[in-house]
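Chapter review: from sequence to fold.
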Amino acid sequence: GFALMTEAVGSAGMMEIPVVIIDVQRAGPSTGVPTKTEQGDLWQMLGASQGDFPRIIVAPKDDLDAYNSVLELFNLVDRYQCPGMIISDLLISEGRFSVDPDKIDFHPKIDRGELILKSSTNTDEYLRYKNTESGISPRAVPGLENYVHVMATDEQDEDGVLISDEFTNPIKRRMMVEKRGRKMHDIFEQVKAPVLEGPKSADITLVGWGSTYGVIHEAIQQLKNIGITANHLPIKWIVPFHAKNVKKILSSSK
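The token string follows.
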């Protein structure tokens, strides 16, 4: 499962390769209760691989949201050149939902980010990992003439040369870590902050993420039937996490 493949997450982070990983969670620990619904992989996905690097984790609430999240995540990882993970479970992956076809985008917009599409004779200064203000380095599409470059899982300089091949250069190392990290500032602005659903003033505030959305709404109705008002704060984007927004909402909850 995902636990055996986390080295690939770190590889994508270091080489700045866009990749989307779909994880259908199961009960743990170890093989636990294979494929049965439980949100048991969260910590595994948060800490997958070593070190600190940009990653995006999204938890869709149902099948339609999962479909739309895949489209959105593919664009995000292509734009920011980092791994992205969809954290799902059995309820979504094998559940049955009725979906209005008009809500499905069959022709989504595709955003590949900053690409170099045309060959040039002046490629001596091509820096695959150029240290830009945004942290995003323009990519040459595969096979483009005169744009040969090195990619490896070791830390590298802007031109792809491994810094461990000369000596461990702390200045270059810090520069590259900070370059990659700057991407998260813009990613944070691109994903929507969670919004409180239901009455602002309620007896109980229920917080959940992923497929707990439907169960929580059923619980809210059951509470209403016995005279207890409740609202719901669904968390979709796990990373980046809108901590200030969540804190502000929960600080006014009972």
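Two observations follow directly from the output. The domain at 2-103 is CATH 3.40.50.970 (Rossmann fold). Residues 63-80 form the longest helix (18 residues).
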